[in-house]
Hints:
It is built from 31 helices and 22 strands. It is of the alpha/beta class and about 750 residues long.
Amino acid sequence: MSKDDGIGDEQAHLTVLYGRLDALRAETRERLDHVLAATGLTHQGLAERDASAAELADRAARLDAVENGLCFGRIDTRDGARHRIGRIGLPGTDSEPLLIDWRADAARPFYTATAVSPEGVALRRHITTRDRRVTGVSDERLDGTAAGLAGDAALLEALRAARTDRMHDIVPTIQAEQDAVIRADPRGVLVVQGGPGTGKTAVALHRTAYLLHTRRERLAKSVVLLIGPSPAFLRYIGDVLPALGETGVRMTTVDRLLPGVRATGTEPPAAAEVKGRLAMAGVIAAAVAERQRVPGADEPMAVPFDGGEPIPLDRETCLAARAQARDTRLAHNEARPVFHDLVTDALARRYAARFATDVLDGSSLLTDADLAVIRDDLRADPGVRAAIDTLWPPLSPGRLLTELYASPRLLAAAAPDLDPAERGLLLRGPHRPWTPADIPLLDEAAELLGSDDTATRAAAGARRAERVALAQEALDIARGSRRTDFDDGAAPEFLSAYDLLDAERLADRQAATDHRTPAERAAADRRWTYGHVVVDEAQELSAMAWRMLMRRCPARSMTIVGDIAQTGDPAGAPSWDRVLRPHCGDRWRLAELTVNYRLPAEIADVSAQVLRRIDPDRTAPRAVRSEGVPPWSAAVAPDGLDASVARLAARESRAVAGGTVAVVAPAARVAGLTAAVSAHAPGVPVLDARQAKGLEYDAVLVVDPEGIAAASPRGLNDLYVALTRATRRLGVVHPGTGTGAPAGLAGLRPLRGGA
């Protein structure tokens, strides 16, 4: 069959597929309209209607999302069967599917079959389309000859395509190594270690889509949480899951996990490193315990009451009450009512003893009912409440941390194992904004403090009682308005509202319905338990950030994706075992990605020099292609560096017309370079290494590599990140007067014509 015949054959089938897709869309929308139009439903019926509507709306969204690239492959088996592979499964009119979802078991040979191990496949066809038109086919005959990468032509075409500001899915070109990770058992913690360009992020996203497909009923309700390193990264990958037909994932950064709190402040890396240590969990616990106070041994507290003589409150009474409250193992705010009740009871007995004691035997003359009245009076007295609150105050996470950071005394008491310089890094004024490193500490405090919801539950009960009362009034009015003037005086032969409902059920029907999606509800609930958690660039998370994440997934169903060699955060992971052992012991497994798809061999060779300096035992991923464009270097005068980089950025933009260019530089140079580059090459971003993490561009200019390496304790890791963002062209610009490459970067050719 000629290539043209193949295109014609696939076009005919593609037309059938789109016809079926359009029919399913119309059917789904019709069913959704019918469900939404339903009226006169019971309370249960309304809930069922809303659930059905949400399910149909989700299905409609998935059908709409697969419009582009609906079908991208075909496998012909040796027994004569033929299967088309696509973004979604489409049923035919008979028992045979028209299109197999790429996540189905039947589709797996499309990704894993090789000439050495064909898995019953005779031919694999990659189909390229634009809109609803087939533009090309590429066939592989798996006849036992030497094997290469699955779909070499399609893969290399995808790798050499110009980048945009959005990441694309790799569903047509997933390789066997990646497929094994995508389909791995969702239970437990899977760590996916891979160097730059190995497709870690793409694998994580496609694994998310696979898990949602195979465990939809469970994960649609419990939600998948996807953590990325930055908002820019989340924007970059934001189209991938919708293109795979999945829209119900919560995507966020670690510093936005705490509802209602935003981290807008900055701080020195050394301060963030201290806050990220696992020891800070003990510091927060000690800070909470310190706020549960008792009077001094020789200084009983004088509790004012009702304008009379204060009631003495001694240390022993408070110690006993504190011990009993702590023994409940409730969080601070939840145990506070226990402490208050115990202390109030002691005060009531002490107060009663003043006025109602038998003169003969000293016993109380008051009944339990009398004591109950006194206790109620004490609870209602503002002076008494204020006095007890000084011993066991209501605390919010923000208040606890603000007061801790502002007080050298409190810091010394809560963090005796930190040296004075480290405690000094934590000191700050009371009105400073929170930083990203504060968020895990606030979350830790929230876990230890809990919330006393007594008032909230009381208010909710009052609101429901009011609804019940109003409902009863409505039913009484309906009953009173019933006609009794029938000719024969018999009861009417029809039912009214009061025959079918009582006041409580009618009130419940008036309660507000929560129409938020599960992902939206999860985002607003700190205690939400996620069904699966995916973490990208996971090596950047601090030990305290890991505690926060593990709290949200007690089942430990997690996919952790990263590269230890790219750790840039001072509080980041030195090894996966150090990160996970406190939470999982040795119950985690490692999968490694070894093939580099992003970097051409010329750039991979340069970056491998830095990897050897980071860890001589590490092996760089194997590059699968060469671009024939050697990386270059240019030495420029320090006082003209910004202008030179701006001109070179414009030059690279012309070289990759239609592609993307970025400048990666030390953080201290970003502002000056941004001003210069925007004037000569509009649209070219200037980033530091941490901002560039996880992103990719057709061409990259790395500015002042020695400055990048010197800028942080993990500088070589940051330099490694900077040198591995390019997919086609790499230039290195460094301040100097010679023509040689920067130290430690052999193999860069001098730029012809200068900068």
